[in-house]
Design a protein that fits this description.
It contains 20 helices and 2 strands. With about 500 residues, it is mainly α. It is globular, with a radius of gyration of 22 Å.
Length: about 500
Amino acid sequence: MSSAVTRLFNHCFANLIPRREKKIDDSGLTLWQAIRGLTLIQWAHFWCGWLAWICDSYDFFSVSLSVTALEKQFSKDANSITTAITLTLLFRSLGAIIFGIASDRFGRKWPLVINLLIAAAFELGSGFVSTFTQFLVVRSFFGVAMGGIWGLAASTALENLPVEVRGLASGFLQEGYAVGYLLAAVVNLTLVPETPTGWRGLFWLGAGLSILAAAIRAVLPESGVFLRAKAVERAAGRSTKNKTKVFLRETKEMLKNHWILCCYAVVLMTGFNFLSHGSQDLYPTYLQTTKGFTPHDSTVATIIGNCGAIAGGTIAGWLSQYIGRRLTIILFVLLIGAFIPLWILPASFGALSAGAFWVQFGVQGAWGVVRVSASPCINVPPAFRATFPGVAYQMGNMVSSASAQIETTGGNHLKTTIFKDGTLQTVPDYATVQGILLGVVAAFVVLCTIVGPENHGSHFEKYKAAFEEGAGRDEEMPDLDEHGNPIGCIFTM
C-alpha cells in the first residue's frame, strides 16, 4: 500500500513540473516554421472545423441569450425555460455516439456535412415553434445533432496538422466556441431588438450559418488519414461488410483495453463542462435578475467575457507547448478561482465585466488545452479520435446538463435584495450560487488534472483508421516505467 501511495505522490508531483512539447522526430521546426509550412488544404480543414464549432456554440447559446424573452413568450419562469438547455445537453451524448462512429468508420467529410445540415434544420425549427412543448421537443432533437459536432470538428481541424502547431491550433480552435457565443451576443444586441420577429431571428440566422459550414466542408477533400486508409482497403480488396466487422471488433477491443481511460475522460469532461456551463448558460439572466442590469448591458458584459475567453484559449494553447498540457490547465483553473469574487461581488458594470473577462479567460484557457489533450495527451486510442473525445465530452455534458437548473433552483432558495425601478426588490441570488458552484468544480478539476495521464507530442496523424485491421492495438506506445506503465500515466492501458 505504501509503495502505491508513494508512486501516486511522485506521479502527482511530476505532473507539476513544466515540460516542453516532446519532439518525436528530428525535424526541429519552430512554431513559426511549422505554421509557414502548412498547405492550403491543411489551412482549409482547420478553418472549416473552426467554423463548425462556431455554429455549435452559436446555436446552443441562442437559448441562453433568449431566456428572458422566452419567459414572456411561453409564460414560464427561468427554471422551466432552462429545461430546454438541460434536454439539449442530455441528448448530445446520443449524437456524439452516432456521428462519432460514423466519422471513424466512413470518414470525416460527409458525416460532418450531414451533421451540420440536421443541426440547421432543428435550429430553424426552433424559431417556428408556437408552444413550450414544441420548443422542448425541437431542442431535444437539436441536441442529438449538436452532439456530433465537437468530435468531428476537432478531428477535421487538428488531425492533419504537424505536432509543432497543434497546441496553439487547439487553443484557437476551442475559442470558436467563444466566438460563436460572441457572435450570438452581438446579433442579440443589434439585430434582435430591431426586427419584428424578435428572438426567433437569432435562431434562423444560426441555421443559415450551419448550412454555410456544411457547404464549405462539402467542397473540401477528405482527411488525408482516410484517403490513405481507403487506398489500403481498395488494394487489399476488402468489402464494406468486412470493414464493418473489423470496425466493430476494434471498437470492442478499444473498450476492453481502455475502459479505465474512458471512465477517467468522462469524469474529467464532467468537471470541465460544469465549469463552462456553470459560468455561461445563465450568465445573462444572472446579470439581469440579480444585478438589475438591462438586457443591453448584460449582453455587452457577455461580449466582454467572450473576448476574455478568446484571449485565454489562444494563449493557453500556445503556453501548453512549453510547460505541458496539464500544468497549463491547472494554472488557468486556479486563475478562475482567484477571480470568482470579482465575478459575483461587485454591483457596477465595469467591475462585473472585468470579472467576466478574467473568469472566462481562465475557463476557456483550460478548455483550449483540453481540445488537444482529449486525444493524444491522455493516450486516447488514435483510431477512435473522433468517437472517443466526442463521446467523453458529451457524456460529461450529460452529467453537467442540469447546471442552469441547479443555479435557478439554488437561486429560488437563496434570495438577495436590490434597488430596481426605485424600489427595493427581493430577487434570486444567482451570484452566490454561481460562486459556490464554480469554486467547488474548479477544485475538482485541479484534482482530476493532477492525477491524470498525459502523452503530449503524439503523432496521432500517423495511425491507422478504426476500420483497418489491428487499428485499436497497433499503436505507438509511450515509454514505460519500471512497473510497465506508460510514463506520465497512473493507469495501466
